[in-house]
Amino acid sequence: MKFTLGKKDTQTKARTGTLITDHGDIQTPIFMPVGTAATVKAVHQRELKDDIKAQIILGNTYHLYLRPGLDILEKAGGLHKFNGWDRPILTDSGGYQVFSLAGTRKIKEEGVMFKSHIDGSKHEFTPENVMDIQRTIGADIIMAFDECTPYPCEYGYARNSMELTHRWLKRCINRFDTTEGKYGYSQTLFPIVQGSVYKDLRKQSAEFIASCDREGNAIGGLSVGEPAEMMYEMTELVTDILPSDKPRYLMGVGTPANILECIALGVDMFDCVMPTRNARNGMLFTSEGIINIRNEKWKDDFNPIDPAIGNYASTFYSKAYLRHLTISKEILAAQIASIHNLAFYLWLVGQAREHILAGDFGVWKDHMVKKVSTRL
Ligand SMILES: CNc1nc2c(CC[C@H]3O[C@H](OC)[C@H](OC)[C@@H](OC)[C@@H]3OC)c3nc(N)[nH]c(=O)c3cc2[nH]1
């Protein structure tokens, strides 16, 4: 994988870039739709490509390992062949999911024991086997096995956890660098900065991750309940240390406003479940602000959902119609709202890229942060 920097903004730390992978190029800043169990919920691959203009989607090691399982994925020739998404894929390493889904807190030096949330079967993730698992899934970008520290957590816990994550990273690198991809294309490993919300730990972790000199770097341990100001402070501290010629991925972020603020702090890649999860609850992000489509006020609003972002679903369907579908719990509601929200997120980062190139990102960002946060 290669990353070429494009234009650096003069008023902020925002920049454009291009990530070149064996499954295609990614223009940054970029938002990556979450595709947990080999699917971006309620959305066809064709819609992801043509309507949403997604350039890279996520997969989830924890979920895919449990179901459909590695044997099926390997027989299929990897995740790209299995779900038919032939563009880039990134998978998380499973640590976060084990902590959040399987409710496991049994963390040892060796790795993490957990019970499947599906059938209660016992499993263990170690730095070594999650590298092998992600080799088999076949994502273009794979994440190191780490512990995402909860918020809040004691300084001592954060320090010990960060040091464990660093020891696990060395084991991930040793395993990854001594194994090959299984399907004839290259994969790359991103390490993850931890350190919770403690400045000295964040600095130490960012310096250690930078010293590993990998092709891209992730910022973890944020968007876990801390105040946004704290997220921004830790993000800025870390992006000032991570190498500027490598892509920076801020995990689990965030609202449209969070994403714009963090692009201004030098972040290139984002993922978040909000556009898809909130869509299923009738919460729409639009270029004019946030809409709760269940609200009575949209009952006879026959205007399109959001024609400004120029995709099919947001232009063809009215607010009144989507409200009707949503309160009627129609399947089509989840489909339209998911396509719209994801198209909005891709439109927003695309606009950010255009304004960085045009040289007016700072002013545009301040205006848009207010607009996208307005409750309509
Ligand atoms: C929300 N705030 C949030 N999410 C963090 C994720 C998970 C990202 C993950 O978040 C969902 O899994 C639960 C998504 O599935 C629903 C995954 O997409 C497949 C996504 O994988 C990249 C983190 N992952 C790791 N490995 N390390 C982290 O420190 C970390 C921090 C996060 N903050």
UniProtKB/TrEMBL annotation:
<feature type="binding site">
    <location>
        <position position="221"/>
    </location>
    <ligand>
        <name>substrate</name>
    </ligand>
</feature>
<keyword id="KW-0819">tRNA processing</keyword>
<feature type="region of interest" description="RNA binding; important for wobble base 34 recognition">
    <location>
        <begin position="276"/>
        <end position="280"/>
    </location>
</feature>
<protein>
    <recommendedName>
        <fullName>Queuine tRNA-ribosyltransferase</fullName>
        <ecNumber>2.4.2.29</ecNumber>
    </recommendedName>
</protein>
<comment type="pathway">
    <text>tRNA modification; tRNA-queuosine biosynthesis.</text>
</comment>
<feature type="active site" description="Nucleophile">
    <location>
        <position position="271"/>
    </location>
</feature>
<feature type="active site" description="Proton acceptor">
    <location>
        <position position="92"/>
    </location>
</feature>
<comment type="function">
    <text>Catalyzes the base-exchange of a guanine (G) residue with the queuine precursor 7-aminomethyl-7-deazaguanine (PreQ1) at position 34 (anticodon wobble position) in tRNAs with GU(N) anticodons (tRNA-Asp, -Asn, -His and -Tyr). Catalysis occurs through a double-displacement mechanism. The nucleophile active site attacks the C1' of nucleotide 34 to detach the guanine base from the RNA, forming a covalent enzyme-RNA intermediate. The proton acceptor active site deprotonates the incoming PreQ1, allowing a nucleophilic attack on the C1' of the ribose to form the product.</text>
</comment>
<feature type="region of interest" description="RNA binding">
    <location>
        <begin position="252"/>
        <end position="258"/>
    </location>
</feature>
<feature type="domain" description="tRNA-guanine(15) transglycosylase-like">
    <location>
        <begin position="12"/>
        <end position="372"/>
    </location>
</feature>
<dbReference type="InterPro" id="IPR002616">
    <property type="entry name" value="tRNA_ribo_trans-like"/>
</dbReference>
<feature type="binding site">
    <location>
        <begin position="92"/>
        <end position="96"/>
    </location>
    <ligand>
        <name>substrate</name>
    </ligand>
</feature>
<dbReference type="InterPro" id="IPR050076">
    <property type="entry name" value="ArchSynthase1/Queuine_TRR"/>
</dbReference>
<dbReference type="GO" id="GO:0008616">
    <property type="term" value="P:tRNA queuosine(34) biosynthetic process"/>
</dbReference>
<comment type="subunit">
    <text>Homodimer. Within each dimer, one monomer is responsible for RNA recognition and catalysis, while the other monomer binds to the replacement base PreQ1.</text>
</comment>
<keyword id="KW-0328">Glycosyltransferase</keyword>
<dbReference type="Pfam" id="PF01702">
    <property type="entry name" value="TGT"/>
</dbReference>
<feature type="binding site">
    <location>
        <position position="146"/>
    </location>
    <ligand>
        <name>substrate</name>
    </ligand>
</feature>
<keyword id="KW-0671">Queuosine biosynthesis</keyword>
<dbReference type="GO" id="GO:0008479">
    <property type="term" value="F:tRNA-guanosine(34) queuine transglycosylase activity"/>
</dbReference>
<dbReference type="InterPro" id="IPR036511">
    <property type="entry name" value="TGT-like_sf"/>
</dbReference>
<dbReference type="InterPro" id="IPR004803">
    <property type="entry name" value="TGT"/>
</dbReference>
<dbReference type="GO" id="GO:0005829">
    <property type="term" value="C:cytosol"/>
</dbReference>
<keyword id="KW-0808">Transferase</keyword>
<feature type="binding site">
    <location>
        <position position="194"/>
    </location>
    <ligand>
        <name>substrate</name>
    </ligand>
</feature>
<comment type="similarity">
    <text>Belongs to the queuine tRNA-ribosyltransferase family.</text>
</comment>
